[in-house]
C-alpha cells in the first residue's frame, strides 16, 4: 500500500506495472504446476532477496509485514498435515493422522503460500496505484471509466481515516457515551461503520459527478499526462526471474532438502 | 444575441419528496450575458444549475421532464461544496485530468497547467502539490483554474466564495471578472456586494422555485425591493435597512467578574508542531466574541482545541473548571463545526434536531414542540423527514446550528454559522444567538462577515498566523482598525 | 437511460469494493489465527471474502455490479499486499461470477435475504472449486473435506447472506441508497 508511506524508489518501482503484473501472474500459474518442494524452497530464497533488499522500504516495515506470512505458512499447511490422506503413518491420535505424504504436501502448501505472499507484497510495495492504472489503460486497454474510478476510489481511502476521526469528534461533541462491554462495543461498531460506509458512497458519487462535469467520457481517445512505457529495467526483471527459476531447478536436483520430488503421489 | 441555453416548462421532483421542486419552469440564457440568480436558501438554485448543464439527469438521476431543453456546447461548473469537486490528489494532476479529457497532447500539458494556474493567481514552485495541503482560498482558485481549463463558453458558478476571507473573496472575483469578460457567466451567490457591478441581469426565485423577477440589475434592485425584503434575499444595502428596522439596542456589557471562558498560555498542536498560541483571553457571561482572521490563520483550530479535540498545553477553564475535568462536557458547551456535514449523526432532519434532547431523556411530548418550533425558526419545517445530507448547503448549515444550540448550553462555539445563508436566515440565526446572549450565555463565533463583528459582537479575538493578535471589546477593535481594514464597510 | 453501468455506478461499486478490500486484507491474519484452532473453524469466517459482491449488488441493483465488486475487492486486497498474492484475483473472479449468476437467474429482480444467501452459497462453491486445484483439498480425509465444505458454505450464508443483507438494510436508513438506485416509476408519474 504505497499510498502514504515514504519509501526509496528502486529499480522494481520503475518496471512497467502491467508487465510486472503479467509476470507475477505467469509465476503464479507456473508455481501451481510445481510439485517438488525442493524447487519451492530455493525459489522462495530468490523472491526473498527481492523483498528484503529491493523494495526500498525500511526494515522495520518489512519485518512487520512479514509476520502474517508465518501465519500463512501455518494456515496453508496444518490441515493438510494433520488430516490429509496418506499411507505411511507417522503419528495417529484421535482424528489427527499425520502421514509422510500429508506432511510433505502440507509443507509444500506452506512454502507455496509464502512465495505467493512475498511476490504479491513485493508487487504492492513497489507499484504506485496511479501508475498501475495508467499502465492498464495504455498497455492493456482497460476502459478509462474503470481505471479512473479505481484511482479516485483509492484516493478516497486515506480520507476515510480522517472521516473516522471526524465522526469520533461529532459523537463526542454531541455528548454520546457508548456503553461498556460487548454491547458498548457493538454500538460503537455500528455507530462508526454505517456512517462511514454511507459517507464514502456519497463522496464517491460526488466525485463521479465532478468528473462528468469536467467532461470525462468513455468515448473517443484520450491523451495521458503520464506515459507509462517499457524500459531496460523490464528486461532486468525478466532475466532475474528466469535466473531464479533455472537456479531453483538446478539446485533442487543437485542439493535437495527432501527426497520427495512430487507431493501429489 | 443568440441563446446558449434554455429550458421550457421543466418539472422536477426529488425521489421520495412529495412536492415538485420546479413546476413548469422556463428560463433562457443569451450569449455573453452575466446573470445573477438570487433566491432564498433551498429554492433550487443549485439544482437549476445542474439541470442547465445536463448533470441532471445524465449523471444524477432525478425525475424530470421538459418540453424543450438545450444545454450549452461547452460549459464549466464550479460546485458549491468546495471539497467535492476535485477528481485527482495533486494540483497538476487535477488540471491534467481536464486536459486529458480534451485530448490535449501530453507535450503541451505542462505549458497549459502553468498557464491556468497563473491565470487564477496561483504560484507553485512545483505544481505536483497535494491539494489537501492548500488553504480554503487556494483550493477555490484551483477549482476555478480547472474549470477554466475546459475553455468553456458558459461558466456556472455556485457560490464560489462562501467560505473565503475578504482578501480571498476579492481575489477570486477579480479572477472571475477578468476571465469571464467574454463569456456567458451564470452566478449563484448570497454575498453579492462583490458581484453586483459585474452582472447585468438578475433572476429572482422564490421559495417555491418560481421566477418572480427577471430583468436588468438596476430594474430588479430598484423595483423589487419589497419582494427582496419579503423573501429575505440579500441586496445591496440590506444591512442598512435591517439596522434601521431593528436598531440594535445598546447591549449591556457583561457584569460578571468571573469569566466563563478563560484561556492562558494556551497552545494547540497539530502533530508535533504548535499551530496556535493564545497568551491570554477571557470571555464573560453575556459576551459575544467574534473570532476573525484570514483563511488558514487557525480559527477553526482554536475552536476544536477548546472542544478538547486536539492536543493542547496550557490553561483552558470553562465556568471556572479545567475543561478536561468537566463531566458531561456536552451539557455545558455546544459546538457547530465549520463543515455542517461533520456533525450529523442521525438519519433525518427531525431526529438530528431532537438528538441532544433524547440523550437528555426528554419525553416525546417535551421534545416535539421544542424541535418543531426551532425547525420553523430556521425554515426547515418542510423537510423534517429527509436525510440531513439531502438538504441544500444553506439548509445543512442551519440544521447544524439548530441541532447544536437546542439545549441552550451556557457556552456556545460556532464556526462560521452564517455562510451560504440568505438574508432572512442569517438574521434569524443572529437574532436567536442574540437572545441567548442576553440570557447570559457566552457566544464564541468565527466569522468573515464584518457586519456581524460590528453590529452583534461585544468582543473581538483576532487571530493572525497562529497567534492571538488582539483580545479587546468590539468598540476598541473597530476604533483601532478603522484606518487599516477599511476594505469592507458595506453599510456606509 | 443509458445502457450498462454509468460512471457513478462504477465509482460507487469500486469504493464499496475497496472498503471491503481492506477488510479482506485484515481478514487474512484473523483467518490465520483462528485456523490454529483446527477442524476448519476458520471456514466459518471465510464467507467475508464473498461479501463485496452481495453488498454492492444489493445497494446498486444493476447487472454486472456483483462481478465488478468482487473483482475490484480482490484487486484491492492484492494491491494492499494481501497474503495470497495474485491467487486472490482468481478467487475474486470465480466468486464474483458465481454470485452474479445467481442474481442473473432471478433476472436482477430480487434483493432479499434468500437471494443474498444463495449468492453466498454459490460463491462458496466457486471458491471450493478453485481450491480443488489450488489447495489439493481433494487429498484431505473425506470427513475433513465434508467439514470444510459445510463450514465454508455455512459461513457464506451467515456472512454474505444474512449479515450483508442486514448491513444494506441499515444503509438504506441513511438514505444513501436512493442516490444510486434508479428512481421509481411512481416518481416519474408524479411529474404529471
Ligand atoms: N437528493 C435530494 N433529495 C431530496 N431533496 C433534495 C435533494 N437535493 C435537494 N433537495 C431539496 O431541494 C431543494 C433545493 O435544493 P438546492 O440545493 O437546489 O437549493 P439552493 O437554492 O441551492 O439552496 P442554498 O442556497 O442553500 O444552496 C431543497 O429544499 C433541498 O432540501
Ligand atoms: N488536519 C490538519 N492537520 C494538519 N494541519 C492542519 C489540519 N487542519 C488544518 N491545518 C492547518 O492549520 C492551520 C490553521 O487551519 P484552520 O483550519 O484552523 O484555519 P482557519 O483559520 O479556520 O481558516 P478558514 O478561514 O479557511 O476556515 C492551517 O495552516 C492549516 O493548513
Ligand atoms: Mg445551493
Ligand atoms: Mg476554519
TrEMBL record, chain A:
Subcellular location, record wording: Membrane
Record-annotated membrane-spanning stretches: 21-54, 61-83, 114-134, 237-258
GO cellular component, one term: plasma membrane
Keyword terms of this UniProt record: Membrane, Transmembrane, Transmembrane helix
InterPro entries xrefs: ABC/ECF_trnsptr_transmembrane
UniProt KW RNA-binding keyword: no
Record's bilayer topology term: Multi-pass membrane protein
Primary location: membrane
Pfam family, one: CbiQ
Coiled coil (residue ranges): none
Protein name: HMP/thiamine permease protein YkoC
Species this chain originates from: Halobacillus karajensis
Biological classification of the source: Bacteria, Bacillati, Bacillota, Bacilli, Bacillales
Gene: ykoC
From TrEMBL, chain B:
Keywords from the UniProt entry: ATP-binding, Cell membrane, Membrane, Nucleotide-binding, Translocase, Transport
Record localization: Cell membrane
InterPro entries attached to this UniProt entry: AAA+_ATPase, ABC_transporter-like_ATP-bd, ABC_transporter-like_CS, ABC_transpr_CbiO/EcfA_su, ECF_ABC_transporter_ATP-bd, P-loop_NTPase
Species, as recorded: Halobacillus karajensis
Gene3D superfamilies in alphabetical order: P-loop containing nucleotide triphosphate hydrolases
Domain of life of the organism encoding this protein: Bacteria
Protein name (record): HMP/thiamine import ATP-binding protein YkoD
Membrane topology: Peripheral membrane protein
UniProt-listed SMART domains: AAA
GO MF assignments: ATP binding; ATP hydrolysis activity; ATPase-coupled transmembrane transporter activity
Annotated GO CC locations: ATP-binding cassette (ABC) transporter complex
CDD domains: ABC_cobalt_CbiO_domain1
ABC transporter domain residues: 7-233, 261-490
Family the UniProt entry places it in: Belongs to the ABC transporter superfamily.
From TrEMBL, chain C:
Transmembrane segments: 7-24, 44-60, 113-136, 142-168
Pfam entry (one): ABC_cobalt
Keyword Ion transport: no
Keywords attached to this entry: Membrane, Transmembrane, Transmembrane helix
InterPro entries from the UniProt entry: ABC_thiamin-permease_prd
Protein name, entry field: HMP/thiamine permease protein YkoE
Organism of provenance: Halobacillus karajensis
Organism lineage: Bacteria, Bacillati, Bacillota, Bacilli, Bacillales
Chain's gene name: ykoE
Amino acid at each position: 500500500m504505497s499510498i502514504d508511506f515514504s519509501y526509496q524508489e528502486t529499480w522494481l518501482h520503475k518496471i512497467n506495472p502491467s508487465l510486472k503484473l503479467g509476470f507475477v501472474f505467469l509465476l503464479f500459474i507456473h508455481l501451481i504446476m510445481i510439485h517438488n518442494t525442493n524447487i519451492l524452497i530455493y525459489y522462495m530464497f530468490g523472491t526473498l532477496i527481492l523483498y528484503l533488499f529491493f523494495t526500498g522500504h525500511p526494515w522495520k516495515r518489512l519485518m512487520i509485514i512479514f509476520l502474517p506470512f508465518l501465519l500463512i505458512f501455518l494456515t496453508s499447511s496444518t490441515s493438510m498435515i494433520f488430516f490429509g490422506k496418506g499411507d505411511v503413518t507417522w503419528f495417529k491420535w484421535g482424528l489427527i493422522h499425520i502421514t509422510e505424504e500429508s506432511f510433505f504436501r502440507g509443507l509444500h502448501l506452506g512454502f507455496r503460500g509464502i512465495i505467493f505472499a512475498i511476490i504479491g507484497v513485493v508487487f504492492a510495495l513497489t507499484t504506485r496505484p496511479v501508475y498501475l492504472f495508467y499502465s492498464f489503460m495504455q498497455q492493456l486497454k482497460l476502459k478509462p471509466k474503470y481505471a479512473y474510478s479505481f484511482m479516485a476510489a483509492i484516493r478516497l481511502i486515506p480520507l476515510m481515516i480522517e472521516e473516522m476521526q471526524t465522526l469520533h469528534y461529532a459523537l463526542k461533541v454531541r455528548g454520546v457515551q457508548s456503553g461498556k462491554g460487548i454491547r458498548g462495543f457493538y454500538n460503537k461498531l455500528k455507530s462508526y461503520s454505517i456512517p462511514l460506509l454511507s459517507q464514502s458512497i456519497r463522496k464517491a458519487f460526488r466525485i463521479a459527478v465532478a468528473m462528468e462535469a469536467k467532461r470525462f467520457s468513455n468515448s473517443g481517445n484520450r491523451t495521458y499526462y503520464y506515459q507509462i512505457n517499457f524500459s531496460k529495467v523490464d528486461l532486468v526483471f525478466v532475466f532475474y526471474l528466469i535466473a531464479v527459476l533455472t537456479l531453483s531447478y538446478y539446485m533442487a536436483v543437485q542439493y535437495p532438502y527432501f527426497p520427495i520430488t512430487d507431493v501429489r503421489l | 444575441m443568440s441563446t446558449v441555453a434554455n429550458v421550457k416548462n421543466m418539472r422536477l421532483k426529488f425521489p421520495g419528496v412529495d412536492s415538485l421542486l420546479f413546476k413548469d419552469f422556463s428560463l433562457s440564457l443569451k450569449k455573453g450575458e452575466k446573470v445573477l440568480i438570487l433566491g432564498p436558501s433551498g429554492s433550487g438554485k443549485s439544482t437549476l444549475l445542474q439541470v442547465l448543464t445536463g448533470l441532471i439527469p445524465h449523471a444524477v438521476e432525478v425525475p424530470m421532464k421538459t418540453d424543450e431543453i438545450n444545454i450549452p456546447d461547452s460549459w464549466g461548473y464550479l460546485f458549491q461544496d468546495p471539497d467535492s469537486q476535485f477528481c485527482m490528489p495533486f494540483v497538476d494532476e487535477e488540471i491534467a485530468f481536464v486536459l486529458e479529457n480534451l485530448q490535449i497532447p501530453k507535450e503541451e500539458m505542462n505549458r497549459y497547467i502553468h498557464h491556468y494556474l497563473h491565470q487564477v493567481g496561483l504560484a507553485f514552485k512545483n505544481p505536483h502539490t497535494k491539494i489537501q495541503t492548500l488553504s480554503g482560498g487556494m483550493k477555490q482558485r484551483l477549482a476555478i483554474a480547472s474549470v477554466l481549463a475546459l475553455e468553456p463558453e458558459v461558466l456556472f458558478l455556485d457560490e464560489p466564495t462562501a467560505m473565503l476571507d475578504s482578501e480571498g473573496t476579492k481575489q477570486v472575483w477579480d479572477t472571475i471578472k477578468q476571465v469571464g469578460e467574454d463569456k456567458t457567466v451564470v452566478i449563484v451567490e448570497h454575498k453579492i456586494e462583490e458581484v453586483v457591478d459585474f452582472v447585468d441581469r438578475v433572476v429572482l426565485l422564490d421559495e417555491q422555485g418560481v421566477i418572480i423577477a427577471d430583468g436588468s440589475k438596476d430594474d430588479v434592485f430598484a423595483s423589487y425591493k419589497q419582494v427582496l425584503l419579503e423573501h429575505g434575499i440579500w441586496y445591496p444595502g440590506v444591512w442598512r435597512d435591517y439596522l434601521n428596522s431593528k436598531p440594535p439596542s445598546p447591549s449591556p456589557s457583561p457584569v460578571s467578574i468571573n469569566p466563563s471562558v478563560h484561556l492562558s498560555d494556551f497552545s494547540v498542536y497539530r502533530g508535533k508542531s504548535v499551530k496556535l498560541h493564545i497568551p491570554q483571553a477571557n470571555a464573560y457571561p453575556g459576551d459575544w466574541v467574534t473570532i476573525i482572521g484570514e483563511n488558514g490563520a487557525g480559527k477553526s483550530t482554536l475552536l476544536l482545541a477548546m472542544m478538547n479535540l486536539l492536543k493542547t498545553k496550557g490553561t483552558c477553564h470553562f465556568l471556572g473548571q479545567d475543561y478536561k475535568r468537566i463531566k458531561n462536557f456536552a451539557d455545558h458547551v455546544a459546538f457547530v463545526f465549520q463543515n455542517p456535514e461533520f456533525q450529523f449523526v442521525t438519519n433525518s432532519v427531525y431526529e438530528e434536531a431532537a438528538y441532544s434532547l433524547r440523550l437528555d431523556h426528554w419525553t416525546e411530548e417535551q421534545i416535539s414542540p421544542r424541535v418543531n418550533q426551532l425547525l420553523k425558526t430556521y425554515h426547515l419545517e418542510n423537510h423534517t423527514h429527509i436525510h440531513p445530507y439531502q438538504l441544500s448547503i444553506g439548509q445543512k448549515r442551519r440544521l447544524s446550528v439548530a441541532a447544536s444550540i437546542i439545549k441552550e448550553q451556557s457556552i456556545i462555539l460556532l464556526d462560521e454559522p452564517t455562510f451560504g445563508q440568505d438574508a432572512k436566515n442569517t438574521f434569524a440565526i443572529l437574532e436567536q444567538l442574540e437572545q441567548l446572549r442576553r440570557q447570559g450565555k457566552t457566544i464564541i463565533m468565527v466569522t468573515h462577515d464584518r457586519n456581524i463583528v460590528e453590529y452583534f459582537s461585544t468582543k473581538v479575538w483576532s487571530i493572525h498566523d497562529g497567534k492571538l493578535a488582539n483580545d479587546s471589546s468590539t468598540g476598541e477593535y473597530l476604533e483601532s482598525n478603522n484606518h487599516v481594514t477599511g476594505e469592507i464597510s458595506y453599510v456606509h | 437511460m443509458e445502457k450498462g453501468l454509468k460512471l457513478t455506478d462504477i465509482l460507487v461499486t469500486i469504493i464499496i469494493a475497496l472498503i471491503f478490500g481492506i477488510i479482506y486484507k485484515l481478514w487474512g491474519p484473523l483467518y490465520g489465527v483462528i485456523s490454529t484452532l483446527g477442524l476448519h473453524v476458520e471456514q466459518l469466517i471465510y464467507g467475508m471474502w464473498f461479501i463485496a459482491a452481495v453488498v454492492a449488488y444489493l445497494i446498486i441493483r444493476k447487472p454486472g455490479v456483483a462481478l465488478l465488486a468482487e473483482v475490484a475487492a480482490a484487486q484491492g486486497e492484492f494491491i494492499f499486499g494481501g497474503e495470497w498474492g495474485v491467487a486472490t484475483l482468481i478467487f475474486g473472479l470465480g466468486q464474483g461470477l458465481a454470485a452474479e449468476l445467481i442474481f442473473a437467474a432471478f433476472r436482477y429482480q430480487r434483493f432479499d435475504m434468500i437471494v443474498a444467501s444463495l449468492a453466498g452459497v454459490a460463491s462458496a462453491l466457486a471458491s471450493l472449486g478453485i481450491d480443488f486445484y489450488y489447495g489439493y483439498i481433494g487429498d484431505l480425509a473425506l470427513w475433513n473435506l465434508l467439514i470444510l465444505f459445510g463450514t465454508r458454505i455455512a459461513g457464506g450464508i451467515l456472512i454474505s447472506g444474512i449479515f450483508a443483507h442486514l448491513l444494506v438494510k441499515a444503509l438504506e436508513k441513511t438514505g444513501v441508497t436512493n442516490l444510486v438506485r434508479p428512481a421509481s416509476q411512481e416518481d416519474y408519474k408524479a411529474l404529471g
